[in-house]
Amino acid sequence: MKQRVVVYKKLPEHLMERLRAEFDVTAFDRVDAGNRDAFAEALKSAHGMIGASLQISNDLLEAAPDLRIASTVSVGVDQFDLNYFRQRGLQLAHTPGVLNEATADTIFALILSSARRVVELAELVKAGQWKGSIGEAQFGVNVHGKTLGMIGMGRIGSAVARRAHHGFGMKILYNNTRPNPEAERELDATFVSKEDLLAQSDFVCLMLPLTAQTERMFGAREFGLMKRSAIFINASRGRIVDEAALVRALQDKTIHAAGLDVFEVEPLPADSPLLSLSNVVALPHIGSATHETRLAMAELAVDNLIAGLRGETVPHLAL
Ligand code: DGY
Questions:
Q1: Is 237 a known active-site residue?
Q2: pLDDT per residue over 284-316, tens digit each?
Q3: Which of 13, 51, 180, 194 has minimal Cβ neighbours within 10 Å of its Cβ?
């Protein structure tokens, strides 16, 4: 009898065919209030699950005794309780590597657009408000030659720093759980304390996984240590930041601006104070969202799932 797989994200047809060739597949393009019960019901008899963008509770998994592997189409695994996976011996696979460059491109878009006020000024043009030569009130600040402080210098952080160093002649400071000799050698990056990084950087870029240790680790104290001219960039996870403290820091000009791809609550609620601030560039969590990269992530996630259910070595286990 075929093993059963639950798909909870729309996958390209050729990948669905690969899954159907080997497994009994129940698919949901997305899970919402309308089909949450059907999803939970399907999971009860599943051996594998694959999808993304859904918080998966232990209760759901507890009701699925045959489950062997969850394969997420993301590098982040904060939607699962890792301790539960460890205790139960469940495999958890993810998609690192293939999204580094696309995510670094998004982060650079945030750096450039928040420094040069690209979104705000493009909206002015579209609104027919470009009446004459742009004056000081609309000037931005330089990116090239400035100091970039990376909090987190893993795969994506290094890809951001590479762009900054080679493309924009920026000085790179970083803080990380451990030194990154490659970044120091190739990018002339300097390991500094978090406090020194905050005090010296023109752009502070957060690139950490969300864990119990990093949740809300960045708040009023950290914004207070930044230069008043500094720009804060976050495309990792919104819950690493105390968002209310960020709003206050932007409102009272403790920091100059922010470029954000992630938020405490996503989608960002329409009444979020962040939306009324002209010194905020806000994107809808598009870090890896290009056709090529999302395809590569989906392919990797399917490879992971198939390997796990065949009892073979899973290419990318998260734990
Ligand atoms: C990831 O891969 O973790 C991206 O942030 C999408 O959730």
A1: yes
A2: 999 999 999 999 999 999 999 999 999 999 999
A3: 13
